[in-house]
Amino acid sequence: MKTKSEYVTIPELHSQSFGFDAVCLPPDRQIPLHRQVTWELSCVVTGAGTRLLSEVSEPFAAGETVLVPPGMPHCWYFRNDVTDADGNIGNISIFFSPRLLERISEDFPEMSETVLQIVSQKDALVFSGEAGRRLLATMQRMVGENSRRRLLSFLDLLVTIAEAETVRKIADTHVRSRDAVKMSQILSYVNCNFARTVTIDEISRHIGMNRTSFCSFFKRHTGMTFTAYLNEKRLGHACELLRDPDRNINEICAAVGLPDTPYFCRLFKKRFAQTPTEYRNGLNS
Questions:
Q1: Contact 175, 55 (CB under 8 A)
Q2: What residue numbers bound the domain in which 15 lies?
Q3: Per residue in 190-231, pLDDT tens?
Q4: Residues 113 and 241 occupy one common structural domain
Q5: What distance, in Å, lies between the first and last C-alpha atoms of the chain?
Q6: In this structure, are 204 and 136 located in the same domain?
Q7: If residue 130 lies in a helix (H) or strand (E), which one and from where to where?
Q8: Do 68 and 153 have their domain in common?
Q9: SS3 of 225, please?
Q10: CATH number, domain at 261?
Q11: 34 lies in the same domain as 144
Q12: N or C: more exposed end of the chain, with fewer CB within 10 A?
């Protein structure tokens, strides 16, 4: 990842009308926070987690489709425990330039109103209901199409976007500081990855900082070390899992990223002044 820029920047398209990218890969190979000069229409086929659109962080699930305007910083943080049978997530993204929309409007007068409705948008659009289902179905169909058929499907996508009634807007205010961007990245990454081993070296690389700078940055903004914050997140989730009487302590340890049961129990007792078993018994008393 680049260390001298706040965002990864995806370059403008030159060799094709629009970019089509269907991926199936492990969750930890997600693209970090980025923005590009093109529009991006992205749908999640398999997976769940937290997405970041400008300054808005919110959960997402499979089946959701989002239109991101040019220049808006965004990122999808996929959870490691919501994958297909091979441990992969699935996502389809289409990238198209503002100039392509202009050419479509110029060459096809029937599409001019549709294009105008899209280019007038300055916010990200999150689609649901019938529009969301149509967008997802069309993008999945495009996976098996050749370039000519995809062009026709792309025009169909534009019409669906313009006519959508069940859509939610997320504004890009461009007012966040560099520190706020980094903290959003860190917290979203923790939310999606705390159930596995997460090292300081790994997360500092993810946001483009060296280990020492990252530790100082995190402590300054939270008053806690990163390890303490990560364990606090894990223990909080463990409390929720302890409500399920069918889960044993070893399973809960593994589910929150602390597979060493004695270490987990020591942390738990230090934090809550009782063992996990005592905590569970107290819930049922």
A1: yes
A2: 8-170
A3: 877 888 889 999 999 888 899 999 999 988 887 789 999 899
A4: no
A5: 51
A6: no
A7: helix 129-142
A8: yes
A9: coil
A10: 1.10.10.60
A11: yes
A12: C
